[in-house]
Every structure is written in C-alpha cells, then in structure tokens.
Design brief:
The protein has one domain. The chain contains five helices and four strands; from the N terminus they run H-H-H-E-E-H-E-E-H. It has helices spanning 2-11, 15-41, 47-50, 77-81, 113-138, and strands spanning 51-58, 63-70, 91-95, 104-108. A hairpin with a 4-residue loop joins strand 1 (51-58) and strand 2 (63-70). The chain is elongated and about 70 Å long. The two termini are 19 Å apart. The model has no long low-confidence stretch (mean pLDDT 82).
C-alpha cells in the first residue's frame, strides 16, 4: 500500500519539475565530465569530445541522478577504459596491421571515466539527493 502511494506521488511531479531536475543534474555532472575529459585529453584527441553527461529523471522506476557516457562512435574508448572481453582491466590486445605473421600488440589501459566518477561520487550523490529533495518539497512532499 505504501509503495503504490509513493509511486503515485512521485508520478505527480510534473514535466516542468522534471525538466528542472534534468538541468540541475546536468550542472551537477559537469565536474565529473570535465575531469574525465581532462584525463582522456592528456593522450587522446577523439575521446574527450565523445564524453557527455546524461541526466536520469525516471521517477516511475525511482532512478534519479547523472550518468557519464562515452559515445559509441569512438570504438577505442572502451578498451582504454579497461572494458574488454579479454578478462583483464590492466591491458588489452589488438592486431598490428601490415604484419604478415598476424602479430598482436599488448597495450596498457588508461582509465579516464571511472576515476573521474569515483573521485566525485560523494559530492554528486549529495547534490543529487539535495536537488531531488528540493523538487519533492516544491511538489508538496515533506
């Protein structure tokens, strides 16, 4: 009974308040975004432009916050972050083209997104919670 009432109450949050939440969450995520871009920008020219912030305001599922996203248009971003199918987050392997023996090179990862998110997670969580609480009070919640 209480959960269904909470779901109805959260759904009462109008589109204007949700838009305001999205703008606030985007502002909150800017610190992580700039940190990730500066980490990747030290050695890459394509990855920093592919990183962006996605605000999450899915009140029907109870998900609110900020998500740091790297575009799929930069395929080498995932291996450099340490996301690979090879089971290691410390390195990745790739073919060396031009060699007739089919040589593979081992290359160390250079995490840029996870350290940026992890370093600012506490501040971002507090800011998201404060912003959501303020929006809830604006809707009449206590």
């Amino acid at each position: 009974m209480e959960f269904s009432q909470l779901a109805r109450d959260l759904h009462k949050m109008g589109p204007a308040i949700r838009r305001g939440l999205r703008a606030d969450f985007t502002r909150i995520g800017q610190a992580s975004l700039s940190d990730a871009r500066s980490r990747a920008g030290a050695w890459s020219s394509r990855i920093p432009a592919a990183i962006f912030i996605r605000p999450i305001t899915d009140t029907t599922r109870g998900r609110v916050g900020v998500e740091l996203v790297v575009s799929k248009n930069v395929p080498h971003a995932r291996p450099y972050e340490g996301i690979s199918q090879q089971g290691s987050s410390a390195y990745f392997r790739h073919p060396v083209f031009g060699h007739t023996e089919r040589k593979w090179a081992r290359q160390d990862t250079r995490p840029y997104a996870w350290p940026a998110v992890k370093g600012r997670a506490g501040d971002a969580n507090r800011a998201v919670q404060d912003t959501f609480d303020a929006a809830a009070r604006e809707c009449g919640f206590r």
